[in-house]
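**Fold in tokens:**
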Amino acid sequence: MSLEELLRDRVIEKIKANKSEAEKIFKLAKRDLGAAKNSFAREDYDWALAIAYNAMLQSGRALMLKEGYRPFSQYKHVAVVRFVREAFGKRIGEMITYIFDKMRKKRHRVVYEEPDIVSQDEARQAIKWTEEFVEKIEKILEE
């Protein structure tokens, strides 16, 4: 789906770019990444993955704001994933944007449906992917 299609289908909407708001939201991503690492250290692997995903989500939202977009539909998480994939997939990496979406789905299961489904290895890998994702978005935000 292209950005034009996301706009046409009312998944995202165009707004005035807001660098200061993007920076504020990105700080939430950094906070959440630290919280994910703390949850991992406490062996709370479900929550480590959920918070790691939230760090990715906040990073993606920051990127949207910087570029002058925001989620429009009721499916705000999906809108962020689709925007990041469409607008920055090549720069961030197709695999990591795919992982972003997979973590979105897993987080939903962990929070709303099934507790205790994330292994230590899966949580460790989620944090690793999140660190890479956040670093890449930080570089884009600094441009």
Notes: The first strand starts at residue 12 and ends at 14. The beta strands are 12-14, 69-71. The radius of gyration is 15 Å. The first helix runs from residue 3 to 8.
